[in-house]
């Protein structure tokens, strides 16, 4: 189980690092737009992300 968690963390870091590496200007623009979102909008995005992750994990297992 620990190896699986470590692998998932490593994959997440690789995917998170792709955008700033490939297009720093686009990443900065996206980050500036995200800063303009309200707390409720950010929470909704977080909730959708959690639900998608749980569904994908359930389908994978």
Task: Give your account of this protein's structure.
The chain is mainly alpha-helical and 61 residues long. It contains 3 helices and no strands. The chain has one domain (2-60). The radius of gyration is 15 Å and the shape is flat.
Portion in beta strands? under 5%
Order of helices and strands: HHH
* Count of runs of 4 or more consecutive helical residues: 3
| Alpha-carbon Rg, integer | 15 Å
- Unreliable spans are none
Structural class comes to mainly alpha
Biggest β-sheet strands, sense, barrel = none
Alpha carbon gap, first and last residue: 13 Å
Helix content: over 70%
Q: What is the number of E strands?
A: 0
* Global mean pLDDT: 91
Shape: flat
Overall tally of structural domains? 1
Features:
single chain, 61 residues, mainly alpha, 3 helices, 90% helix
Structure described in brief:
This protein has helices at residues 2-22, 24-35, 39-60.
Give the topology, please:
Elements lengths: L1 H21 L1 H12 L3 H22 L1
Helix pairs in contact: 1-2
